[in-house]
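Is this the right way to post structure tokens for a design question? Let me know if I should format differently. Anyway, here goes:
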């Protein structure tokens, strides 16, 4: 298998990365110290509350709680631009050449509300200001680093429809053109039914849909994967780990070509899988499901896309050809036009083909 350095050098595509989980802790601490509050006295305390300790698996709800720590005032739009720019810079440094960065416009709008705005109801105008800041910061960094970034708007199931509505209403604003897709994330015990009309409208407007499903170890599992495909018109599924529990669901994913955005480290930390050897990524690949490898939340999880590829190879049984398949699956499942997706494949494939010629440092198979 290739070394981590070789994996970093290979051009990669990241389809599932939340800006909320990709912000540098050091930068966040700077904002927190200035605007955030007094709960945490030291950087180490703060970092422990908003990141998962290496090698630990806190479970799904404690994992989501990490993001509650990150709900504080950032002070101004320039700071939102900065975290977005840094997330893109970090991805580029790891060899990501095409990034679909997802974020909740509502959550970032709340971070611009002075005082205790962490759970404030925001307006579509406030969501627009926040989204413009994210897009501006991310695009500037992408241009500087010579990579491409696109955006997905995330709604959180557990915040209900009204809270998320400003993010959905963005489609009717000029900033709506910046989004290639819509995402539903969060606690899967909350029903997705209330979002169905809005997601249908986005689909009718030509946007793509990705739904977090089959991730929550205590949620409905494979049934949610089917619900996402059939009732929410998902083009891709975030995680989909628990599809493995139902042979019919696996067959349907393979037949339909719906892509799974798998995030190995995150899946371990949320306990979507009991342990690393039980991750279903290899079985799903072998069942001809379009699997991709992603970070989910690189800073919260303490990982990079290259490290996720390495983990999949070293601990989950993926061969180099499997990794290459995942990389090309990601190019083919990007929320772009067919021509642009073909172009992405053409851009990354030669480097992956050449990589097979690099002497391997180990062969665990
Ligand atoms: Zn996610």
């Amino acid at each position: 298998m290739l070394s981590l350095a070789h994996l970093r050098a290979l051009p990669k595509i990241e389809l599932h990365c939340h800006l909320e989980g990709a912000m540098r802790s050091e930068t966040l601490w700077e904002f927190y110290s200035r605007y955030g509050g007094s709960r945490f006295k030291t950087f180490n305390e703060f970092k422990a509350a908003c990141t998962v300790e290496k090698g630990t698996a806190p479970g799904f709800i404690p994992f989501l709680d990490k993001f509650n720590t990150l709900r504080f005032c950032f002070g101004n739009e320039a700071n939102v631009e900065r975290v977005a720019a840094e997330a893109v810079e970090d991805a580029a440094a790891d060899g990501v050449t095409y990034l679909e960065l997802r974020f909740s416009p509502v959550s970032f709008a709340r971070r611009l509300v002075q005082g205790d705005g962490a759970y404030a109801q925001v307006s579509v105008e406030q969501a627009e200001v926040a989204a413009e800041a994210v897009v501006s910061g991310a695009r500037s960094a992408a241009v500087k680093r010579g990579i491409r970034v696109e955006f997905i708007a995330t709604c959180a199931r557990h915040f209900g429809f009204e809270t998320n509505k400003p993010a959905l209403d963005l489609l009717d604003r000029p900033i709506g053109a910046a989004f290639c897709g819509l995402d539903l994330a969060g606690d899967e015990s909350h029903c997705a039914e209330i979002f169905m009309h809005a997601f249908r409208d986005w689909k009718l407007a030509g946007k793509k849909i990705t739904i977090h499903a089959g991730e929550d170890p205590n949620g409905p599992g494979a049934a949610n994967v089917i619900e996402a495909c059939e009732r929410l018109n998902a083009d891709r599924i975030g995680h989909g780990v628990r599809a493995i529990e139902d042979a019919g669901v696996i067959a349907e994913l393979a037949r339909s070509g719906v892509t799974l955005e798998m995030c190995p480290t995150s899946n371990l930390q949320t306990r979507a899988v009991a342990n690393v050897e039980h991750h279903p990524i290899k079985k799903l690949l072998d069942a001809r499901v379009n699997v991709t490898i992603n970070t989910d939340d690189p800073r919260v999880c303490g990982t990079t896309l290259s490290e996720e590829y390495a983990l999949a190879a070293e601990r989950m049984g993926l061969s180099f050809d499997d990794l290459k398949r995942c990389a090309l699956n990601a190019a083919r499942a990007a929320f772009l036009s067919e021509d642009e997706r073909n172009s992405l494949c053409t851009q990354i494939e030669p480097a992956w083909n050449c990589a097979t010629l690099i002497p391997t440092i180990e062969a665990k198979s």
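Format looks fine. Someone answered above. Worth noting: Residues 361-365 have pLDDT under 50 and may be disordered. The domain at 4-24+77-355 is CATH 3.20.20.140 (TIM Barrel).
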